[in-house]
Design a protein that fits this description.
mainly alpha, Farnesyl Diphosphate Synthase, two-stranded antiparallel ribbon, 74% helix
């Protein structure tokens, strides 16, 4: 993708990321956080992230309802807290053992391992506090909590991370790889789009389409992440490149090679685009985002 469309989506993403940052900064000031843990939580949350999952919440809500509601803003912050907690824990020596994240020292390097573990615990808990206390309407809050818990828990992100660690130790095949990518990454993307849809008042058919779009998008994101690990630089990625290969991680390039991996990513992008048919031109921004993520370099 080149030209005006690429420039416009990049500008839209930067503006939306700033919006998410502002929402998160406000919540960090409002929520009760003890002084002893506040610097660690703040450091983790205020790293220069892309905020893709949070942006998907906001844009999915806007697609369905024509505007971004406060509930979607709170859901965006909550999912970003869960994502950040997962990064803090993934970077620990017992997990992926990385020293760099988002262009800065990882949380356990900037502070210490115990502080990083507790900051991750705090962020995971805070996400559900935000949904329980900041979303108007108990019915909507319960639905959002249920979606996020399922995507992040033992049949979601936690399961994906566990399978990833097991495959690193004992190997695996394409079926194992697909399980890891779906649970570790794609389910949270699907959760983001469905949370946004719920906040916008989507019907069941719309929710299903948004969830399918998000999961396909998440799979593309993870495949391109795998590819960037072998081709990107630390400056591009904001983290240490080449670690997957050194650690013996189960990745698409390792199982299928670069070209076949790219082919799968293109197929998944086409599937993601196909999910948006019922939304007409209103979904063009989400379509452009899907094409951009296929070509991403960071």
């Amino acid at each position: 993708m080149q030209g005006p469309a690429k420039y416009q989506i990049q500008q839209d993403l930067q503006q939306a990321a700033r919006q998410v940052d502002s929402i998160i900064d406000g919540l960090l000031k409002e929520l009760p956080i003890a002084d002893c843990i506040r610097p660690v939580v703040t450091y983790a949350m205020q790293g220069p992230g892309k905020r893709i999952r949070a942006i998907l919440v906001l844009w999915s809500c806007e697609l369905v309802s024509g505007q971004t509601h406060k509930a979607a803003e709170m859901a965006a912050a909550a999912i970003e807290m869960v994502h950040t907690y997962s990064l803090v824990h993934d970077d620990l020596p017992a997990m992926d053992n990385d020293d760099m994240r988002r262009g800065r020292p990882t949380c356990h390097k900037a502070f210490d391992e115990a502080s990083a573990i507790l900051a991750g615990d705090a962020l995971l808990t805070m996400a559900f506090e935000v949904l329980a206390t900041k979303v108007e309407g108990p019915g909507l809050a319960v639905q959002l909590i249920g979606l996020l818990a399922n995507a992040a828990g033992p049949d979601g992100m936690v399961a994906g991370q566990m399978a990833d660690l097991l495959a690193e130790r004992s190997g695996g095949d394409l079926t194992d790889l697909q399980f890891i990518h779906l649970h570790k990454t794609a389910k949270l993307f699907g959760c983001a789009t469905m949370m946004g849809g719920l906040c916008g008042g989507a019907d069941q058919r719309q929710l299903q389409a948004l969830g399918d779009y998000g999961r396909n998008l998440g799979l593309v994101f993870q495949i391109t992440d795998d590819l960037l690990d072998i081709s990107g630089s630390a400056e591009q990625l904001g983290k240490t490149p080449g670690k997957d290969q050194k650690a013996g991680k189960l990745t698409y390039p390792a199982v299928m090679g670069r070209e076949r991996s790219l082919s799968v990513a293109r197929q998944l992008t086409d599937q993601a685009l196909g999910c948006l048919g019922q939304f007409g031109e209103g979904a063009d921004r989400l379509r452009t985002l899907a094409r951009l993520l296929l070509q991403r370099s960071c």
